């Protein structure tokens, strides 16, 4: 690849990462939590304690919220700003893949690896998703990259980079940012029969760097919120997430196998074909123990990320993204002699992703967002009557409307699902309104998913409902609960 092609590839990557981001609505149920939390922190001038719906919120550490707050300050509170830093870290991840592959193998392998990494379906999704993962993937990868370069070169100072990036990974996602890469490098040193290398890792200055970068926020949060922070952050959102499935339907043994096949597409299938085609050659290399140490490290890295996350109860499609860097470099090694084919597939994927952004992602995000509902509410509710919701809670509606939206439910349900203790009820921090506390003879506005409209009628059979607007996903209705006592009195007077 000559200089002109290289520059065009970089430009194409930037276009891919930024195209359409201003039109991609903030979606429920995940993106909206991050966007609303960052907006509320910015409005409160509090850059330490995450908060949502006016309540402190301990779901994730602070780094991604800082990203969003900075972007909101630079570009305003909008979709482009929310998706800006995921795109920045996506670009950095591609650069890291290229740089590390070039260090380990060759420039041709580095180009193949970067093209593979940048055109997987998982990267396409994650590079514009308003979630913590793209920054976390970069820091996680950087921990292991700096470790291996220090190990291979004998330059002990590079180990300090591992501690630095582990601090940032911990500040982005939690303890997993140091525990998982730490376990991977420990197993690698044992496999290579060099556990003594641990003694060369400059632990005192390294731990000082780690604590300064990743520990200060945790100390501040404990000082401000005490046991509430410990219980919810470490208890619910870390220990419980690892031991109790948040979505039990996904807790199956083949989950991350499917994620690899679909998320690393189209290269997952190309890799499998190449492995099958070169099976005898690869098997002989293994038998002859001529597999390079770098390849062993990458294989272990990719395997351990998938294995460890598979062992955890809660599973998400983005969790194993840290395995994509070693997989991309391994793919680059397999495909380095077929660079022309790699370029053609990458170019085709780029065109497909550009089409999907505008023809698929834009309408899909609108379908999963409260943005259009918020715009409709301004038209049908000019007097700004109280707004409630029935069904899945639309946090994005709160983000776009800047209004309080109460969640309707029977009092018994509200009481039994309040946050407290080690359970997923800790996520129920939105404002609730019990059916029993609904005002009588006073119209309120209710948003309801179209699929749940009949359930609302069944739950409140006495309510008088008038549809004000029907949208793709939600309907906006005016609801009045008749005063039965007044009706009875009027009947008696007659």
TrEMBL record:
Residues in coiled coil: none
Transferase found in the keyword field: yes
Query: What's any GO biological process attached to this entry?
Result: response to iron(III) ion
A molecular function (GO) term? pentosyltransferase activity
What are the entry keywords? Cell membrane, Glycosyltransferase, Membrane, Transferase, Transmembrane, Transmembrane helix
Asked whether the UniProt record includes Membrane among its keywords, one would answer yes
Q: According to its record, how does it sit in the membrane?
A: Multi-pass membrane protein
Q: Which InterPro entries match?
A: LipidA_mod_glycosyltrf_83 (IPR050297), RgtA/B/C-like (IPR038731)
Where the record annotates domain Glycosyltransferase RgtA/B/C/D-like, the positions are: 59-210
Membrane-spanning segments:
62-77, 84-101, 107-127, 134-151, 163-189, 201-219, 253-273, 294-313, 319-335, 347-364
Major localisation: membrane
Q: Name where it's found.
A: Cell membrane
Q: Which domain of life is it from?
A: Bacteria
Query: Which Gene Ontology terms of cellular component type are present?
Result: plasma membrane
The name this protein carries in UniProt is Glycosyltransferase family 39 protein
